[in-house]
N-acetylated-alpha-linked acidic dipeptidase 2 (Caenorhabditis elegans), 779 residues
Amino acid sequence: MITARNRFTQGCSCMKYYNNNGDKVFQKSKRNRGMKASGVVLVAVSTVALTIILSNAIHQSYKSNSKPLPKLSIATNIKQLINVDNIRSNLHSLTKKPHVAGTENNLRVAEMIRDQMITQGLENVHFNEYNVMLSYPNWTTPNIIEILKENRDLVFSTTGRSVSVIKEEQNDPLAEIQWLAYSAAGTVEGDIVYVNNANPSDIEYLESLGIDLKDKIFLARYSSNYRGNIAQMAVKKGAKACLVYSDPKQVASLGTGPNETYGNTDKMPSNTVQMGSVYIGLGDPRTPAFPSIGDLFKEKTEQDLLDEKKIPTIPMLPITYATAQILFENMKGDAVNADFQGKLNVTYRYGPGLINNQKLRVTVHAENEERKIQNIMGYIKGSQEPDKFVLVSNHYDAWTYGAVDPNSGTSTLLEVSRALKQYQNQTGWIPARSILFAHWDAEEYGLIGSTEFAEEYRLQLMRRAVAVINMDLIGGNQTLLGLSNPTVANVLRSAAANVEQPNPTEMEQGRKTLYDSWKYYAPSKNNRSTHPYQRIPAGGSDHLPFFDYLGIPIVFFITSSLDAPPTYPLYHTIYETPYLIENIMDPGYKVHKAIAGMFIECILKFTESKILPYDLNELMDDSIFEYLPKLEDRLNKTLMIGTKTDYLLDAQKQFKLLQKTVLELSEIVQRRNVSKLEELPFGSRVDINNRLIEFEKCFINPHGAIGNPQARHVLFHPSPDNWYDGDAISQVHDLISKISNSTDSKELGKLSRQLAKEIALVNVAYICAKHSLGEFFTM
């Protein structure tokens, strides 16, 4: 059940205390109760007002006594103001305690961020609050698995706790608990079956072997697949429970001994787990496409979510790879094929079941609760187009201490906003467009803080936000990983080319900038470009609601050492404390400083460009040479299945119309002369920029994808099979796959019409984009 609770400390019995005293409280007179409520409201309003007044007062009065800066570019001057000692201090302050969203510890972190933003002189610094459904374990009773003999004697049991290594930093027992958010609670017994990554091809292969998956306990291993998709597959196949572990193949490539793992390297030891959420979706699960403001109506109950399988209906639990080895040692069944093989020193088996008629028991304690979360907002007001702004963001909530995810990014972004204000105070510079800084809460649960903000300010953001720059974490010191909308890919590349590579090994190899390393490790995948490969926008961080729901161009970047993709070996573990950064991943905070440079370069590109830096040609090239050919190829291959021809006739017709529109739009885009547009008077440039903003919104379908009102972008949104990944126009590809696999004529008729409609919707988006670039009254 959902328990109403507001920011109580992890593990405390505060709710019980309030319940036990409820009768006494409610016996007080209505008059006293009303006076008390009024007092609380007045205090709350006064506190908010005081915060905003103080923020604005500091903004007006804060001046630096630093010497004038040399005459360099604005970006270079601001980058020179970045102080790694400040970043280091920020990181230590933010990561003293584990700070899961909705807890008292996380509120303390939010207050630290807010106070620092006020001190920096940002305007209107404030909390942006929502009441949302979050999930928690029992902080004093760990989740465990047990192996039982046939006579019910206990053979083996886990402790359910990760083991701290650096005691002075990892000293809070709450960070030791192993759990997955939004897991169902319960105790189940059954036979285990190994499902590898639990993706569709793995499941199809197991079923081809005749292995019955229903009512089994799944054992899955993390890979590039999102854990929520693993949970979704387990529920779909009727599993009793699902265990997930990180295999040494991904997280301990040097070996599993103490010299090869954490303490000496950034690799995962055998006694910890990756934690996280298993919810697939955006925002508060109860309020899709509707902001969870205070006591506003919440559309879905917890039971609704369980009935619709929006959250798992079975216990989910992360386990260590040491525990996984014990399970494999006791597992029945044939040895696995090469694709299922990991690097544990054991024979991997499919199961099902354990030897000697042993049974596996899984016990998970979990509860969903309503809690208050708070985003922290503040801005630097622009001088020429103050109503237009670039949104610059990171999140601050963490599963444990968060020194990498996310507070390596938080500490860096705080220093970026400080340096921008210092430069403004020293020189009088004001950005042409405003800069809105956001530190999101509850990202880890399902991008909740950012999504609720996007839903509340939907119209204002769609009209005024020129871009979102989101950076999650500093996950390595080797290279940059970036993604963006095609129209703003140039901004990301330009920024990377203007930031010096902080890794001396990379420099010795002749890779002088972040761009050079990025291009080396992620070369172009087509013959049209020599630029580094950029994935299309997908899930995984707070940029998602802004492009997929609102159509705002996004730039997202992290750093990586290309180990344990798509993250890093110690992702979401107890070991994310400053020791990991300062002794292993980024001694000297040089990578943090480089990422600060990325922020600054991207920010100024969006605030200072006379014409917004949207490269429409890149979108059109991708559409003509990549997106449409892939669709055409899929259609043609499906046509080769003779029985499907009649069901694709309408789709073929709509596809030809789409091709025609895209070519017409491409011709319009090619005729644009950006250099001449930049010479136009200010008012004319504003009109052109408004059209560019409108152009991007053309690709938003206000009704959303089938069954998902939040997936509104017709070109890009995450894959239903892997939240971390996606494909252009994926909704059309998915329908073609369904037609290919279906043999039911009634279903095929329905899918045929859906496919034609979805292709037509993409066409309408490109038609709208044509209108945005043309004169409305000369159509």
User: Anything to note?
Assistant: The first strand starts at residue 2 and ends at 4. Residues 1-54, 56-66 have pLDDT under 50 and may be disordered. The longest helix spans residues 30-61. The two ends are 57 Å apart (CA to CA).
